[in-house]
Design a protein that fits this description.
- This protein is of the alpha+beta class.
- It is built from six helices and 13 strands.
- The protein has three domains: 48 residues; 81 residues, wza like fold (2-Layer Sandwich); 84 residues, Outer membrane lipoprotein wza domain like (Outer membrane lipoprotein wza fold like).
- The strands form four sheets. Strands 10-9-13-11-12 form a five-stranded mixed beta sheet, covered by helices on one side. Strands 1, 2, 5 and 8 form a four-stranded antiparallel beta sheet that branches. It has a two-stranded antiparallel sheet with strand order 3-4.
- A hairpin with a 5-residue loop joins β3 and β4.
- α1 runs antiparallel to α6.
- The N and C termini lie close together (9 Å).
Amino acid sequence: MFKSVNVIVAFIGCLILTASCGVNSNLMLKQAKGTEVNSDEIPLRPTEEYKIAVNDKIAFQLYVNEGADLVDGTTEISVGSNGEFDQAEYVVRSNGQVELPKLGKVEAEGMTVEQFEDTLEMLYSTEYKEPFVKVQITNQRVIVFPGSGSDAKVVPLTNTNTTLMEVIALAGGIADRGKANTVKLMRMVNSERVVYVMDLSVIEGLRFTDLVVQANDYIYVEPAPELGKEILEKVVPLGSLLASLAVLVTLISNL
């Protein structure tokens, strides 16, 4: 009988241990001990212009006569069902080229927006007088983890001077569980993602709020652990099982 009781107790212990292993398992991007992060050298303004990359979507407008006239047939602007203008988008393919009206395939990858505008003006100058080109990358975005532990939001960048405060606001603000004193900016620098840490919980952190975010930045608000809550959520359901096993043990002991 005692052997059966010991087996049951051991089984219950294994269940509790297994359940506790899943506590806070949804947390991402945990910082390992000894990992280097930057906190004092965060660039508040872009150190270099964005360069066009594969899968970028490009929209452009072509003007002639020093910007006096818009060439509709080239930029393919149409009126959508909502009455607003819909502008065609052209995707940069895996070979770094984008196919444009009347030009065909044009190299785009690695150029800044200004360089690409100059390239298009040169190419279109063979057919149009004094062309002027305005280029926009329409799918630039940042990903924000507001600190809830699992949710994330993709925030489109509609202008080139979107700040950290604007992005956090567009994502709904810092979550109740988020730690405002541990906000991480993860940015690609020289083909490597660098992590910067900011403290927005104090007034001194105000200097970071005007930081200009860049396309493909990650903004990660570290969530506070909820050990007690999650342990209860995972272990309490075992209470009914424990009660059932207790009844079973009682029945066995009375045999």
